[in-house]
Design a protein that fits this description.
This protein is of the alpha+beta class. It contains seven helices and 20 strands.
Length: 443
């Protein structure tokens, strides 16, 4: 069995070009012909799930770590909140993969080709992940940059890190788990230090409140006992009074207030000090409990989150459509409800996509993803029509007419009910005995 390195040299930062070529050749051999079924974020990178490969379940790339690896165990890659990269790929990269290659003239740049689209993944800092059509026309990129530049001289050649490309998965998962554990310990220690610092501050506050309580209790009692000796409406900087052991004592006053008002101020300060001791005591108790839980559970307590501060997309994770993939890579989107139909047609669909709807029946809008300028195939049109019938009130009889036209021909006026639209230049196809098209996979 090929030897797997447990730990790489400290200077190691990312895959060598030789490693990247080896992995991409492996993907080209075992993943070409597979269908892209999902894109999601995991372990700080991007996982593209595939259907149709007997060897692997998908591939994963991590721009920060500058790696691309084949994935067999999807369970080792839990889903995380999407970034702009994954959201963009979900909308713009789909279909059946035809080839993987490395664009060595640009460095560590991986090209993933489908029948109609190319995904360009630069595995170095500062460059965008790009989706383009067959002619090289850009469809989407994840950030602005100046594009790829040809290398002035070839990259250095280093020996392979692993003999077996599949070792990269277990290595990365082990590395990722170790880094996350270290990050967790770091955050736990930071949290612990923060709690201990807060405890010390609260203890200092309690000490100050206790000192103020003793001082103002003494001042209030002495001034109250000796107030008869003075004109209570006088303004003084201080007064000399006899304490309860008959010793003379000076009490500093606020000259802006009368003697009576100063005495009242002392009693207010007593109340304030008592409240301070009580509140600080409760805070100290809470902090001590947090510290104890932190030590017992070894888990970072969840931070309270305000719903108002959460991004809108995180508050509402509802997807307005069902997604179907055909064997040839064609993607169909089917609206779930009336409001979802509007969102699908006017926010998700592109102007050159095809729009379908069962004529004279309530039902879902169906969108067939299209490349700009592409001529639709009859088998794909019939598949979309079948979906329009099956996701409408016509499904009981499994027959009826279906309108279809380019999405750019569909409009909606203000005040129209959800799901209702206007359209032009539509064609009509009659469907009889409509059935779910063979080979159509619901994602």
């Amino acid at each position: 069995m090929p030897q797997q390195k447990k730990f790489l040299p400290a200077a190691y930062k990312a895959m060598y070009l030789s490693d990247t070529i080896q992995v991409v050749e492996f993907l080209d051999k075992f993943a070409s012909g597979s269908l892209v079924t999902a894109v999601y974020r995991s372990r700080g990178g991007t996982l593209i799930k595939l259907y149709g490969s007997p060897e692997i379940s998908g591939f994963f790339f991590h721009l920060k770590d500058k790696i691309i690896i084949p994935v067999k165990n999807l369970g080792a890659f839990p889903k995380e909140p999407l970034s702009r990269l994954e959201e963009g790929l979900r909308s713009n990269f789909f279909g059946k993969i035809t080839a993987f290659s490395v664009m060595k003239e640009y460095g560590k740049v991986v090209k993933v080709e489908t029948e109609n689209l190319d995904l360009i993944i630069p595995l170095f800092a500062g460059k965008s992940v790009v989706v383009q059509d067959e002619s090289g026309k850009e469809i989407w990129r994840d950030k602005k940059d100046n594009g790829l530049n040809l290398l002035e001289k070839p990259m250095k050649d280093f020996p392979l890190t692993f003999v077996d490309p599949l070792f990269w998965e277990s290595w990365f998962v082990e590395k990722s788990d170790k880094e996350r554990e270290e990050e967790k310990k770091k955050k736990l220690e930071e949290k612990r230090s923060k709690i201990l610092s807060a405890i010390n501050i609260v203890k200092d506050d309690i000490k100050k409140h206790e000192e103020n309580l003793a001082k103002f209790t003494d001042f209030a009692a002495l001034l109250k006992a000796n107030l008869w000796k003075f004109d209570s409406s006088e303004h003084k900087n201080s007064v000399l009074v006899s304490d309860f052991e008959n010793n003379e004592k000076e009490i500093t006053l606020d000259p802006a207030k009368t003697l009576l008002q100063n005495m009242e101020r002392f009693f207010q300060n007593i109340k304030k000090a008592k409240n301070g001791i009580e509140n600080s005591g409760k805070r100290l108790e809470t902090l001590s409990e947090e510290l104890e839980k932190l030590a017992l559970s070894d888990e970072l307590p969840a931070e309270p989150k305000s719903v108002l501060k959460q991004p809108k997309k995180q508050q509402n994770s509802h997807v307005p459509y069902h997604e179907f993939h055909a064997k040839n890579g064609r993607v169909f989107l089917v609206g779930k409800e009336e409001k979802d139909n509007d969102e699908l047609t006017f926010k998700v669909a592109l102007p050159h996509d095809l729009w379908f709807h069962a004529k004279d029946y309530h039902g879902s809008h169906v969108i067939m993803r299209m490349k700009k300028g592409e001529e639709p195939k009859q088998q794909d049109i019939l598949a979309a029509c079948a979906l329009a019938i099956l996701y409408s009130k016509a499904k009981k009889g499994r027959c009826g007419e279906v309108w279809y036209t380019a999405r750019k021909n569909v409009t909606k006026h203000k005040g129209m009910a959800a799901g209702l639209v206007n359209f032009k230049n539509a064609k009509v196809i009659y469907m009889k005995d409509a059935a779910m098209p063979e080979g159509l996979v619901k994602v």
